[in-house]
Amino acid sequence: MRKGFLTLNSREEAKLSARRSKGHRVTIHDLARIAGVSVSTVSKALNGNGRMAADTRERIKSLAAEIGFRPNALARGLLSNRSFTVGLLTNDTYGRFTLPVMAGISEALVDHGVSVFLCAIEDDPELGKVHVDAMLDKQVDGIIATGKRVDRSLPVDLAGLPVPVVYAFTEGEAGSVTLTADDRHGARLATEWLQRIGRKRLVHITGPREFASAVERAEAFREVAGSAAPVLHGVWSEAWGHAAVDRLWNEGGGKPDGIFCGNDQIARGVVDALRERGAKVPEDVSVIGFDNWEIMAAQTRPPLTTVDMNLKELGREAGLMVLALAEGRTVEPGLRKLPCKLVIRESCGGGDRRD
Amino acid sequence: MRKGFLTLNSREEAKLSARRSKGHRVTIHDLARIAGVSVSTVSKALNGNGRMAADTRERIKSLAAEIGFRPNALARGLLSNRSFTVGLLTNDTYGRFTLPVMAGISEALVDHGVSVFLCAIEDDPELGKVHVDAMLDKQVDGIIATGKRVDRSLPVDLAGLPVPVVYAFTEGEAGSVTLTADDRHGARLATEWLQRIGRKRLVHITGPREFASAVERAEAFREVAGSAAPVLHGVWSEAWGHAAVDRLWNEGGGKPDGIFCGNDQIARGVVDALRERGAKVPEDVSVIGFDNWEIMAAQTRPPLTTVDMNLKELGREAGLMVLALAEGRTVEPGLRKLPCKLVIRESCGGGDRRD
DNA sequence: TTTTCTTGAGAAAACCTTTTCTCATATTGA
DNA sequence: TCAATATGAGAAAAGGTTTTCTCAAGAAAA
After folding, report:
1. pLDDT tens figures, A167-189
2. Which domains are present in chain B?
């Protein structure tokens, strides 16, 4: 007689809405009562465990859907030792680097039912500790550390934590799992492209020598362009790009016909300076940027051809890695460098040569 | 005999590290065993509840600190119906607007032991629902919705959720708690400043009419500058700023001596165009931007005087508001507009007139 | 008809913490 | 010395879910 009915009778409905309006969520007990079975049966029905009559299972499932039952993750986590949350620690709140990384992480993990705690710690070790403790209290399954510089670590010690840690775009301790963009690869891509479209006299204008990224890109540039190719170190700004062009054009000697810049801001300064001097981009000089910072690269006249570090992909990978570690799967430790890609716009010409 | 000892004996230490190495965290039961009291006593000691001998309390407290006991937030939340988490929903993953908002939220809430779930939903209603469900499963105490446009709502319905919702810098449903920057106030600040430093012929160059922000700022501009003052609507780009100046200078009539721009990118285009035409900034023309987007405003030559929307503060307020609602305190519903502030740099001159 | 096996479903424990209630002991007053 | 009170600490329940174990009933075999 009980079997087969699907809609709730009015008494049950009344009870349910009474509970709901008191701020209570629907629990597995409510569902069990309504279905006329025990909570264990409900649990097994919904999770596909245990032996049971197929129609019982189906009946419970559709009833659960009908009243919108969703298991309390806190209770579940308490039992399973898995909270289905991970923490994301960053000291780059305003930065354009970590944003795509974060987006990638969030995107990769939501498919696995994992939510991400965002912890903006600036450069404050105290704040870092507070956040880490708060996350550990909440039983995060793992932590991802990310920052604004590949060669600096966060102001907080994550070694020896009771949960796995993955470092993305920031320096991790020895033996840790770390992910960054392959700066050398990006620089090679850019330099080879300049050569491929016929540029001979290449120059690299980039940021300070103190940045590992700047150094690595410069080394890779010289490996491709030749060890005598000039590299100008400065700061990461538009103004420096401008000034560097002034310097190149004021000193004697042959002018470059291809300029690889350490970031899009420098490239923008370079393009502006070239225009002011009457050098046409890309007809006379090809310019390549780095970062593919849309709002900068796309608004420059002409729009910048630039190197994209695939940061979203990097985030996605990092997310999947903590997840793997959290589930007890092993992940090979060490530094993994993800390849970059070249985004062709108009500041180089040669777009038709792409293949 | 038991009383007064502080350091663990070796047997207890061994047991503890055995548990820890098996991936188990220290529980209140461990602590109780070590302290030689019951779990209830420990709980009461640490939470300052119940009656108990002062030295018992102290002994337990220092023991807890020594072994690093921290209560499991999942268990706590299960009991108290408070998870000390809130969800942050955003469709502006890359945007410069929501970043400071997020930072403000995180900063305000960490002090209250509350962690923030970051949910990047782009403009995907499906993804939005997945995230919201995941958060509700995790028993978030509240949700903050934020986006890239004040006059658009997120692609997900947050009405009727069993937790409080606060909207920050995005449109909420009727009767909701919503926080935005006061565009009119910002525009007034800028326009009045131009007048104050002696500019008479003011122009406003801004974004599309479809943006409520653009319209409100334009209205406020005209209230201050006079209803005949020209307003040029275009897009939010540097190129448009450039083009707008071309238009103004090519058509006959008096040239403006003060230009209020709808955002920093437009301002940058305006400044560049003026320089190209030989008009000096700020000597001949004063230019004001909007947004105080550091990387744009500070790198423009000369650095931009601009309106700051106090987005971090807005985030902080939003955070405190969900918290209040989560704790059952009432918050007056409706749209609250937070004041802006003027950031004086060099594109206006008159910096010394500040008071 | 009796025995064995299969199937379906429930009872109870476990996860960790907090809180209320209860109880034993020590202290005070008569 | 006895009763009444104050004090300190433990037992147990609760919160929501999952999992293991147990058990009853029906079906098949003898």
Report:
1. 999 999 999 999 999 999 999 99
2. 10-71 (1.10.260.40), 81-181+311-338 (3.40.50.2300), 183-308+343-353 (3.40.50.2300)
